Each structure stands twice: as structure tokens, then as C-alpha cells.
Please model this.
Amino acid sequence: MEWVQDIYRQPLVNVKGVPLIKYIGEMVESIQSFQAWPDDVLISNFPKSGSTWVTEIMEMIYQGGSLEKCHRAPIYERVPILELKWPGLSTGIQILKDTPAPRLLRTHLQLTLLPQSFLDQKVKVIYVAHNAKDVAVSFYNFYKMAKGHPEPGTWDNFLEKFMDGQVSFGSWYQHVLEWGELSCTHPVLYLFYEELKKNPKREIKKILEFLGRSLSEETVDHIVQHTSFKEMKKNPMANYTTIPTEIMDHSVSPFMRKGIVGDWKFVFTVAQNERFDAHYAEKMAGCKFNFRWQL
Ligand code: PPS
Model:
């Protein structure tokens, strides 16, 4: 496979100030003319915030709780990521061409890079957020296994890059702050990984209300059960094991890694935590969200 060298540990490219994997950077310009439809629903998140989980929940809702329908294809084909481009796989845009309405889409893009038509069409957005410390740890492990990222280096180096917004898709802080303001002018439901862990049923009901849909209690319970970490970890249509090993090597670190809140406590040193907290307080002053660091 010739393309392996082309993606392997390449440096990120800068697109309008946002560091991106080269292939994704190339896509960003061509998706700017993408036409969103008013009945689209967009799931947005900074990487490693739990969007695969929310996507599977959304799919189950759209498919009326049918496991069979949710097993028809891998998750990245059922719900395409707008900016996704990997050699050897269909791009998000190619998949969307054959996707009938009502469509579910995903993005990790900073708000500044989102195609304008999503805003013009007032497309409903479900924004998934997750505390920055756990995201940094999850992202570090993801960098190790997803070889299209640059070498992650040491954890200490990676954490510095994360705090500096020099990781793939840019700054967690900018992402959360800017998408966090979008609800002033746009229909947005904010979901938090920590709340989903605490009470998935309550959060699924919030989604249903936001979508203006209803399902029986029994179906909601079924969705909670099917989308648990344990179930999704063993589900090849949701756990990314269908991606070629050259792109994601689950033997290094599985995509479905731990699925817990507070993993950062096992990784951050006391000094890293103090530095992170001081930096966080500065960056996030005035942010309307209060993240839980543990349950
Ligand atoms: S990505 O690559 O940006 O699309 O990743 P994303 O899906 O947003 O986030 C990956 C983390 O979410 C965890 N995950 C889950 N946690 C709990 N329950 C369920 N069902 C679930 N599905 C995925 C996944 O394990 C990643 O977190 P870590 O901390 O690495 O385990």
C-alpha cells in the first residue's frame, strides 16, 4: 500500500490558523461550498469528547432502536464525518452524496471552518463536550494508535502542545468557547460526556426532546444498554476495528480505550496538574460551562 508512507506520521498543516492532518486540511477548502439541508442534524465535538458514543445513540434513535439497521455498516459510513479523507476510504462528502434525508453528520472542525450553509439553514447542532484533562489523555493515546498524526512524543510534550492548541483540530479551549457561544443565535443542544456517564437515560431523553421525537421507555432502555461502553467496545460496527491497521492500530491502544471520567488522575503529575489548572483558569475565564473532572 503506497499511501501508507504518505500518511504515516506526517506533520500537521495549518489551515486558517488551525493545525490539521494533511488530508483533512485539503478537504476543508472543498467542503466550504457544501450544501446543508434544513433537516440535517450535525454532531460536533473536539476530538475524543465522546462523539462516537453520541453518534451511536443518535443512530439508534433514527433507526427506532433497531440493532439490525445499526449493524448495516461501520459507524463512519452510517454517519459521515464531513471533513474526513483517508486514502483507501470513501470521503465524508462521497458518503453524503448517497445519504438520503434526514441526514446525520459529524464534524470536529473549529466553528470558523464550518461551511456557512449549516448556519444559514439553521441546522440543529448537538455539541458534545468532555473535560479537557481526560480529552488530553485520550488524545495522547489516540495519537499513538492513529498513525496519521505526528509522533506524539512524551506525555509532557504532548500536554504542552495540547495546551498551546498545537494538536490536530487545534485548540480545545477555542473549540469549546466558540461552539459554546453558538446557541445565542442557533439551535444547539450541549451534551457533556460526564453527564452521559452519570445518567445516560436522562441525556437520551434530552436528545429526543431537542429533536422533537419520542420513543417508548423500553426502546430508550434498549438504547442505553446497546450504547454502553462494554457493548460498543465489542461492536465492530462502532469500535473502528474495520479501519485498516495502517491507519488505526488497536494493538497499540484500542479506540474504545477506557471510557471513564477521571482517567487523567492516573496520568497527570502534580506539577502538570497545577500548571494545567492555572492555564485553564486563564483560558476559560467567563466560560459558561462547568466541567466535572471526576464523578
Ligand atoms: S473521536 O476519535 O474524536 O471520534 O473520539 P470520540 O468518539 O469523540 O471519543 C473517544 C472517547 O470516547 C470513549 N467512548 C465511550 N465512553 C463511554 N461509553 C461509550 N459508549 C463510549 N464510546 C466511546 C472512547 O473510549 C474514548 O475515550 P477514552 O478515554 O480514550 O477511552
